Amino acid sequence: MSSAFVMTTRLIWKRAWLGALLTGLVLVTGPVVLPAVLRLLPGVVNEDLAQLLRSQLLILALSWVAFGLLCINAAYQSPLQLTRGLPVTSVRIASWVMWSTVVMVVVPALLINGLIRLLVMGANWPDRECSVLGPTLFMTAFIMVAWSAYWSLQAKGFWRLLFWASTMGALVAWLVSRYYPEGKLVPWKVVTLTEWITVLAVCGVAWLAGIRGYARIRCGVAVTSRPWSRIENWLNGDRGQLREQSIPVVGSRVQAFTRLHWQDGCSPVTLLAVIFGGLTLILNLYGYLYKAIYGYVNPLIGSNQPLATFGVFLLSSFAMLLLLGQSLLLRDFSSMKGYLAQLPVSDQELSHALVVNLFKSLGLLLFWVVIFGFGVSYLAIVCYEGLEGFYRDWNWFLKEKFFLVLLFSLLMIWMLISNGLSMVWTGHTKFMGYVFGVVMVLFYPTLILSTGPLRNQRPGLLLVWTLLVIGMICIVAILAFQNAHRLGLISHNTIWLATIFYLVISITFWNFWKTDLLIDRVLFSSFMIFTVLPFATIPLAVSWNRHR
Predict the structure, then answer these.
(1) What is the DSSP letter of 215?
(2) Pairwise CA distance, residues 497 & 475, whole Å
(3) pLDDT at position 314, please?
(4) Nearest alpha-carbon partner for 502 in 533, 476, 475
(5) CB burial class (10 A; 0-12, 13-18, 19+) of residue 10?
(6) Rounded distance between C-alpha atoms, residue 434 and residue 412, angstroms
(7) CB under 8 Å to 291, separation ≥6 — which residues?
(8) Burial class, 373, CB count within 10 angstroms (exposed 0-12 / middle 13-18 / buried 19+)
């Protein structure tokens, strides 16, 4: 019995050791290499950025995020669901998964922190005396609560969602209160006995709740609540479709596949948009009321409603990227779902339907997060303060041409989701890694050369590098559209429309960039190619995945 369980655990975690090793090397060598770079090239890195990198709490947080993502990736790529059929008790399985995740995230982070303390941490590190015990206890409790929430929410319900969201929010609020007890940063140096007992109690309760939630999943009694099912069916339009089953639906093959793909994999996007829209509304109202009651801004949420809305919009775009990526691929993102690849539609019709559902998903997200979340919260604030605040904000909006900022933010979200999907839908993880590596190789030198003192010391080097980046972007775009048209995936009209749209937005944002140098404006304008590039790369990715 135990040998099968051990074999399954080895299958799970053997996929994470290489990524963990590379992540550890990057996190350790970064602070080690930085002083040498500063000595060889003084001023190449902005002093504020260098000071930020000399923070053990930042490195600890980066370690948590990196190793947490590695654990999630290993769990998705491994046969974790096979453990449900093993002749082992639910207590043992759930406990192993929860506590092994704690070890996989916390222990490497502490080892990396210890190595940095021994190698490079000096008196110039601002948080050298801060204890890492408190944040480590918080991360342990957070992982236990996260697993409990994940297993409990497999049986979807509004009360469960509210309870676990409140619990996670309370944990984060408690951590913030330890560093910002009165709105000012105060180092957390000592963990009191009360905090020890509180964290241990939270871990114990979350452990028991996780065992119960996993046992309910394993025995098949974790079912969605009736109110959740009714609202989900209503939002997805299932009731209207049930009434119209007797009426013949006439449409093209593209429309039929669009409906099939939406019902099969994209319908959770509606629920995701509603949840993040409600989160935006709550955060905006909470930040405003907190400042009105206590007289100072909440250090975690702030009181800037547009900024909070953009943060939620950006977070929800990552979640939607994962959902839409999984709508076409298998769970491990390795290849296209078999029945979708075998449907009697051409590659052009298939990619067209996917782009239509992508626009539909982005429209839902825009409506619920921006129009509902931000709009309703701002309307409530205007009703409380009066129209004077509205007129003041409107005059500032027109004077500062803030509509360009809104348009640019929307284009950023579109570039993130569409270009991310064009890589994910290839179903080739190595290719995604190669593309990410090339992007990082181009991004960091561009950032250093454009913001550091080398901008003035070596203008020729900056000019050559900028022209190289612009040329590579243009070549990639030309090759993508050329190959997509050669394979019959896009038409001449698509190329002309993409070209016209790119020229329009480049002219619109030409004076938006805060620079007087022509080369910088050309560089920023070249980045806008990524707004139209997905119209060629998505068909290429889908065709490659379908026929490879």
Answers:
(1) H
(2) 19
(3) 85
(4) 533
(5) exposed
(6) 22
(7) 297, 298, 303
(8) buried
Q: Is 250 exposed, middle or buried (0-12, 13-18, 19+ CB in 10 A)?
A: exposed
CB 77 within 8 Å of CB 332: yes
What is the per-residue DSSP string for 59-124?
A: HHHHHHHHHHHHHHHHHHHTTGGGGGGSSS-HHHHHHHHHHHHHHHHHHHHHHHHHHHHHHT--TT
- For residues 166 and 233, the answer to whether their CB atoms sit within 8 Å is no
Unique residue bearing structure tokens 């907190």: 290
Contact 57, 127 (CB under 8 A): yes
CA nearest to 546, candidates 283, 294, 342: 342
State which of 117-131, 226-240, 322-336, 363-377 shows the largest mean pLDDT: 363-377
Q: What is the pLDDT of residues 77-90, one digit of tens each?
A: 555 555 666 677 77
Which residue, 221, 151, 474, 57, is CA-closest to 466? 474
The position carrying tokens 């021994």 is 118
- State the burial class of residue 21 (Cβ atoms within 10 Å of its Cβ: 0-12, 13-18, 19+): exposed
Distance CA 423, CA 540 (A): 10
| Mean local confidence (pLDDT), 310-315 | 85
The stretch 180-190 carries a mean pLDDT of 68
Residue 217: closest CA among 143, 153, 144, 145: 153
Name residue, tokens 């040498």: 36
How far apart are the C-alpha atoms of 307 and 284, rounded to whole Å? 10
pTM beyond cutoff 0.70: no
Angle at 220 between CA 216 and CA 223, to 5 degrees: 80
Q: How many Å separate Cα 485 from the centre of its chain?
A: 32
pLDDT band at 322 (very low <50, low <70, confident <90, very high): confident
pLDDT exceeds cutoff 50 at 194? yes
Lowest pLDDT segment from 36-45, 260-269, 378-387: 36-45
CA 246 to chain centre: 42
Phi and psi at 329, nearest 5°, equal -110, 170
* pLDDT higher than 50, residue 248: no
CA distance 200 to 155: 27
